[in-house]
Amino acid sequence: MITTAKRLDIVEEYYFSSKLREVRQLAAEGNPIINMGIGSPDLNPPQKVVAAIAAAMQEDTAHQYQSYQGLPELRQAMADFYFNNYSVAVSPVTEILPLMGSKEGIMHISMAFLNEGDAVLIPNPGYPTYTSVTNLVGAVPVYYDLTEATNWEPDFDALERLDLSKVKLMWIGYPHMPTGARGSLALFEKLVAFAKKHHILLVNDNPYSFVLNDNPMSLLQVKGAMDVALELNSLSKTFNMAGWRVGMVVGNAQAIDAVLKVKSNMDSGMFYPVQKGAIAALKSDASWFESMNTIYQKRRVLTEQLAEKLGCQVYKEGVGLFVWAKLPAGITSAEDFINDILYQKHIFITPGTIFGSNGEGYIRFALCVKEEKIQEAIDRFSVVKS
Predict the structure, then answer these.
(1) What is d(CA 178, CA 152) in angstroms, rounded to the nearest whole number?
(2) Distance between CA atoms of 348 and 335, rounded to whole angstroms?
């Protein structure tokens, strides 16, 4: 076989890609698997979104190549979404770029700004893709600690003690994944000041701000953020459109143009009907978020009961699509803990270790499971007395 590129020596297959094969195999063998591991929304998008994509399929231009920058009306809908929900005014022409999911934005931004040997500040714990993409482009991950003691926010004194001489980019994400820490505008102000001081591109990954969160925020609300920051956002969790692959990157025109140079060489535009569906979704009013959060709140209450039944301590301040919980005292391996539950009770939970070393001692539950299934999971741990 032809030798693979050296870059593959420093990355591994995405955890969920490999672990879900194992989970699917258990299900194929007849085991009643309850999957609480992955954050793939099980609810439907708004009905008007489905109607919009169906109608667009019949338009003359529906099946042609599309603009690399997306439809003008899609960019306008994204700009309106930012203004209506975050009070952030951006140009739909130069300061927004639609993406095929925000995950591709992580790669595009990294390719646009990182040279081999540049350093990247990555949260620990945090989204594993930040590390894998950094490695793929030949940059160097530099981890900064997030801990329960600091409410899963950066310790700026510790950041200043790091060697920042080669740092060019810093990943953040609030509401935080996997913990659900909310963040705050005060935190964003400190981060923007830090980025300006050290000439670092700050990128906020922001797909969870409308899930169980009564105060959605954007990093771009901070004065001066547009000078040093980009923000990724997504329709996946907000509108239950994970499989549609619709996201966006927002920021100053020069940075957006740099990302476009990469993107335009990587794809041939987003499917026209998907863009039309996204436009309909972005025009949803507050009643949509309220209806989703009513469901998620009920699920969260039950999931917290499950976590507590396992002897875990729930991080109650968390928002977003997950429940983060500390393992019982004496448990030394999160992966062993979840594997025992998977094989004995047929419930899949995510070990905190896949998000970094600071995830050891924690597990994460996704709220993408119907209430009756969560109750079934609870019942599997009920002791039957004779």
Answers:
(1) 10
(2) 11
Per-residue pLDDT tens digits for 56-74: 999 988 998 888 889 999 9
- How far apart are the C-alpha atoms of 94 and 89, rounded to whole Å? 12
Tell which residue, 121, 122, 115, 187, has the closest CA to residue 150: 187
Rounded to whole angstroms, how far apart are CA atoms 193 and 147?
Answer: 22
Q: How far apart are CA 238 and CA 318, in angstroms?
A: 17
- DSSP string of 120-131, one letter each residue: EEEEES--HHHH
> What pTM was computed for the model?
0.92
297 Cβ contact list (under 8 Å, min separation 6): 212
Cα angle 248, 184, 322; round to 5: 65
Query: pLDDT confidence of 16, banded at 50, 70, 90?
Result: low
Nearest alpha carbon to residue 48 among 271, 240, 209: 240
Instruction: Using alpha carbons only, give the angle 365, 150, 121 rounded to the nearest 5 degrees.
Output: 85
Of 384, 234, 224, nearest to 321 (Cα)? Answer: 234
Cβ atoms 281, 247 nearer than 8 A: no
As a whole number of Å, the CA-based R_g of the chain is 21
